[in-house]
Amino acid sequence: MSNVIRFLRWLSEAVAALFMLLMFATFIVQVAIRYGARLDGLTAALPFLDPNLYGWTLEFCLALWVWLIFWGNSFIVRAADHVSFDIIAESVPRPVARVFLVITGLAIGIGLLASIVPTWERFAILRIKQTATLGDLFGDWIRMRDVYAIYILFLVVVGLRALWAAAQAIWGKRSPLLAQTDEGQSE
Length: 187
What we know:
Elements: H1 3-36, H2 42-45, H3 56-75, H4 87-91, H5 94-114, H6 116-122, H7 134-138, H8 144-148, H9 150-171, H10 179-184
Helix pairs in contact: 1-3, 3-9, 5-9
């Protein structure tokens, strides 16, 4: 693996780790505020601990969760780590398994890439809608489209990865999806 790819992989994992850190820190804030609010006089003495100021924490965690899932599946999860139904592919000769990979790679890649424009058109209404509470943290500029924009990146990246897997199968390159087939059979 080249140094550039290694660095990009490290960077994508660092971003995912940052999402998890922010989620955990927000969760700790939620717990501290929830139980701190029960202590008599604490919110009167320390007004910044008023639970009404922390409604954004739930929505922030949910937005981070959405970003973490789609970011991780776009950049971190390898093709070989995905759940696959490969019983048939393992029982046929390698050239037939390669044809299966080409067909499914093309179908998935074309399907995901073709859904970008209709999805973005559906997101048009989300550019108007504000989040319920994230405006308290980030200001009024954040919209629901910003929260779900990661899905468009997911469609692009996973669609291109599927097409790349199909291209590798066409060229006869070793594919992680054919790893089990490679071990047991020959061409």
